[in-house]
Amino acid sequence: MPVRYTSDLAEHRAVREAAGLFDISHMAEFLVAGVPAGAFLDYALAGRLSALPVGKAKYSLVLADDGGIVDDVIVYRTGEDRFLVIANAGNRDAVAAAFAERAGRAPVAAAFLEAPATGVVSFAHVDGGDRARIEDVTDQLALIAVQGPAAEQILGETAGLAASGLPDLGYYAWREGTFDRAPVLVARTGYTGEDGFELMIPNAQAEALWDALLAAGRPRGLVPAGLAARDTLRLEAGMPLYGHELSREIAPAQAGLGRVVAMAKDDFVGKAGLTARDLPDAPMLVGLSAEGRRAGRAGYPVLGPDGAPVGEITSGALSPTLGHPIAMAFVPPALAAPGTALAIDVRGTAVPATVTSLPFYRRTK
After folding, report:
1. Which of 167, 302, 316, 362 is 20 to 30 A from residue 196's alpha carbon, by CA?
2. Distances (CA, A) of 212 to 25, 123, 220
3. Residue 131: what pLDDT?
4. What pTM did the predictor assign?
5. Close Cβ partners of 59 (under 8 Å, ≥ 6 residues apart)
């Protein structure tokens, strides 16, 4: 995926005002199938995935034994005994290793290795066999995102794309469509803070789908968009990025993701580690808003009221939508309340900043 096709600012504004087209085929995909698939994911991930209805998606976390974050993922339930897990590209090997190791642990190991997956209705192009399994299907699939207020109209006008009922498709829900007879998973998900869709399709048809979406969308203002715009869009929307806001050193609650963890489950990887952690004094993720044009960037120090360093920026930029600098940072709990006056050390200059509730930007529905 390119950093930009034309202009970072133009691509960002297109998504906020019309639509942007993203090639996110670098993301990793894992099929988890079989009668024990729901129980396995309940054990392997932080959330309760067995309760997810077919046709819905859920954000979740892969935790380490000590409660640190291995990756954040989206899980689609594509059948009663079939799930599709989308992971970050850079964590593909880590997630694959975690799934392989957890499939052999109690309490799911015996069932996962022996139970057949019968009567499965699934996203057709990841179907293959009737045995319980975990399969890395990344290299079989492409993923394309259409994000922005015109996304729904663009999909409805794309030649060769058939997906019924898009106006009624809720957020974090999906349905199966076709593109020139190839199966397409169409999900109302995204990483920009706008309405939009992510379309998963076999590699052989991906280029044709991209061209068809672009042809349908250009009259409505659709432009291809790259990583730079994607980063400023997700920052405005207050969405964490692995390697910045999320890491193996960070517990979910520190990043504002405590709600993602189903601590009431009997057992899951990371539960004991989270229980043992002493979090009251751990740094917490906050939003920071500043005036002027000088933005804090990842790694810049955050200064307390006395001018001493108290934290560090994880992501920061001059917001194209809001017109002023914004950032996310980890700071002590005593300084995490909205309205707290801090500063950002921008190359030796203390730029005043105020703790702000996330997200910075919320679309009008």
Report:
1. 316
2. 17, 22, 14
3. 54
4. 0.92
5. 47, 72, 73, 74, 75, 172, 260
